[in-house]
Amino acid sequence: TVMTQSPATLSVSPGERATLSCRASQTVNNKLAWYQQKPGQAPRLLIYDVSTRGTGVPARFGGSGSGTEFTLTISSLQSEDFAMYYCQQYDYWPPYTFGQGTKVEIK
Amino acid sequence: EVQLVDSGGDLVQPGGSLTLSCETSGFAFRKHWMAWVRQAPGKGLEWVATIKPDRSEIYYVDSVKGRFIIARDDAKNSLYLHMNSLRTEDTAVYHCVRHALDDVWSGYTHFDSWGQGTLVTVSS
User: Fold this and answer.
1) Would you call A59 an interface residue with chain B, using a CB distance cutoff of 8 Å?
2) Is A48 in Cβ contact with B47 (below 8 Å)?
3) What is the pLDDT of residues B35-78, one digit of tens each?
4) Closest by alpha carbon to B69, among B17, B7, B13, B28?
5) Cβ-nearest to A42 among B50, B62, B117
6) Side by side, which strands form the sheet with A3-6?
């Protein structure tokens, strides 16, 4: 299952809303996660099962979608949110597949 | 506190071998599916291999089949990746990853904890 993220880069001002998209090449049955990765660090789980936040993840991170179209929304960007974001499906495996990532940068 | 500590990365020549280790603590290792995920320099994430707790199911990405072996030692709470016939395209940071638990101990779960990664460089 090919995962396609858009845009590749998203320029956002602090305090603004960010919307990241992820499209699957076939329907994934709510088996969709989002990860955040900062330079030099391991990825961190943000969202699983489309919309469930991971442990300790702030409420400003929200996931939505179904079928083949999914969205990660960051309601009000904080300085620590500027990072790479990856979606991943775990419904049709092997292989588990990731999107190519969206970089959220400061505008 | 859940901890996954990766080690074993090194510079190796094409065709060489290397074994990566992941020491874990803070959770019931024997209950979890475990995996390796890699990231080539400047690139995205690529799942490499996954192993079920009882070792009855093991899966690999096509590009490493026949060359890599994932293994686990529940007595040592450790995960391993034995890498043979290494290629330049295997150059990456390799992360040990824990699958989340579900009610039926399946592999249909996300990755909820990650090691910091260990760098493997394949070059002559």
Assistant:
1) no
2) no
3) 999 999 999 999 999 999 999 999 999 999 999 999 999 999 99
4) B17
5) B117
6) A3-6, A18-24, A69-74, A61-66
